[in-house]
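Quick illustration, no need to memorize.
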Amino acid sequence: MTTRAIDLDRLQRWMQTVIVDRDGVRAGAASSHARRHIDLAPEQIEEVIGRSRALSGVERLAMYGRSYFARLVECLRAEFPVLLHALGQQLFDLFALDYLQSNPPSSHTLHHLGEGFCRHLAETRPNPSTPQGYRESWPDFVIDLAALERAFSEVFDGPGVEGKTNLPDSRSLLSIPPPQLLRARLTPVPCLRLLRFRFPVNMYFQQVRRRVNPELPQAADTFLLITRWEYRVALHDLSRRQYDLFSALAAGNSVGSAIALTSQPGEDNQTLDAQALRWICDWAEKGLFLAVDFELS
């Protein structure tokens, strides 16, 4: 119950500000942010949140705050189940709670809850300034795994191409004369993500999802493409050259320019063109392109 008449929107904003303060309810009520919504001192909390028979207003808010964070941690466990497996629940919950207290939710939807988790893990990793060869590598694996799971969630919930029947496929690309195809620009589908990792996190991710209990992998540069097809998220491992080629296409380069950007000195251009076009046709068959446009000659 409240003893001061306050409109609901202000009360909700004040209450969220108070309960998410990492220094506690009293510190939250004393903060300038909270006092912009409702200007009262910590000792005046019961003018807004009344006592119950057993608890003071401060104690009631603190209990609500603990429940609030516990529920949000549960939501992060659901979004990052493979990271949860890798860390164990106790350590995962510590990382999750630190993230939530440092980045209090500001959106009305849980979709945005975990979008900064990977960045927070990177910013708070131990010994960030130590050269890579002289520091523990497991935090980098944790950061990579969090990035993969967040990308998976974004692709799953984001825009897709379900229902579209005119996506370019390998047959339509092969019907284009090669000189014209080399001048074409290929637009990736909106659900596509290109990712580069320091660890083979896709292998670990897939094994855990199959209920295998893998060992933590050794570091190895890994390149990955994530997309969604018919409401199912698909993950495709790429070689370094495939990653560079698709990155160049996604940046808006024509097919010919993208191939040239990824060529090595001394390579046979015809062989390289043929190999790259095979990759591109395979990607088209997987539904990775939204449209084909041509440069004006």
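The two ends are 73 Å apart (CA to CA).
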